[in-house]
Amino acid sequence: MLALIEREVARLGLAPGSKLPTEREWVERTGLSRTVVRRSLATLEAQGRVIRHVGRGTFLTPAKPDEQDLANGGGSSPAEIMAVRLLVEPSSMPLVVTAARRDDIAEIQRCLAGSEIDPSYESFERWDAAFHRSLALATHNSLLVQICDMTNAARHQPQWGQLKRRSFTAQRRLDYITDHRTIAEALLDRDGAAAHEAMRAHLLRVRANILGDSI
């Protein structure tokens, strides 16, 4: 099934970020059962090759920002990246409260649930990035989404990866999940101020865990 999807994507000439056919369309194209199709798409999502948005569909993972300009956070240091995140992400929470639709909230909750399944570092990194991007998407502000994509690109930076992996523990994973849950609950309550403070506390925790006394 995975090979069939790859061949069909190539045949259709779909670019990164493009929307894929629906599950029903895949069933019609391949003759496979919907269960097999759904399982295959879930595998592609776990591999980071597609992104599924509740109520919107399944999309090929967007291309990474330009390797010379934006890849790995544009060459910014982890401290610089965290400084930008602390400026932008907490302040965007009230906008999520006012702009988020029902499907946005469902996607935020889906990403939160996904991070709770697999305790591995690699899985959590993918779902962590997806959670923060779902918040940016919920603002319906394209510039904030671009900023999120730039900071998420830093996850491919060797220095960031080494620091994050070295700081990652089972307890810290649980702490981050608890932080995410607190943020999501504040958004569900339509409490922008609480969501702002929850995001700020979360990012301060991340910064302290990754950078320690180096900030």
Give an account of the 3D structure.
The protein is mostly helical. It has helices spanning 2-12, 23-30, 34-46, 71-74, 78-99, 102-115, 121-138, 142-153, 158-167, 170-188, 192-211; strands at residues 50-53, 57-60. The protein has a two-stranded antiparallel ribbon. α5 (78-99) packs antiparallel against α11, α6 runs antiparallel to α7 and α6 runs antiparallel to α10. The model has no long low-confidence stretch (mean pLDDT 86).
Key terms:
single chain; 215 residues; mainly alpha; Arc Repressor Mutant, subunit A; Four Helix Bundle (Hemerythrin (Met), subunit A); 2 domains; two-stranded antiparallel sheet; 70% helix
* Poorly predicted tracts of residues: none
Corresponding CATH architecture of the largest domain: Up-down Bundle
Shape: globular
Count of beta strands: 2
Q: Tell me the CATH superfamily of the largest domain.
A: GntR ligand-binding domain-like
How much beta, percentage-wise?
A: under 5%
Order of adjacent strands in the largest pleated sheet: 1-2
Q: Average the pLDDT over all residues and give the rounded result.
A: 86
Rg over alpha carbons: 18 Å
**Order of helical and strand elements:** HHHEEHHHHHHHH
Structural class, by secondary structure, is mainly alpha
Tell me the major beta sheet.
Answer: 2 strands, antiparallel
Q: Treating each run of at least 4 consecutive H or I residues as one helix, how many helices?
A: 11
**CA distance, first residue to last residue:** 47 Å
CATH domain fold name of the largest domain: Four Helix Bundle (Hemerythrin (Met), subunit A)
Tell me the domain tally. Answer: 2
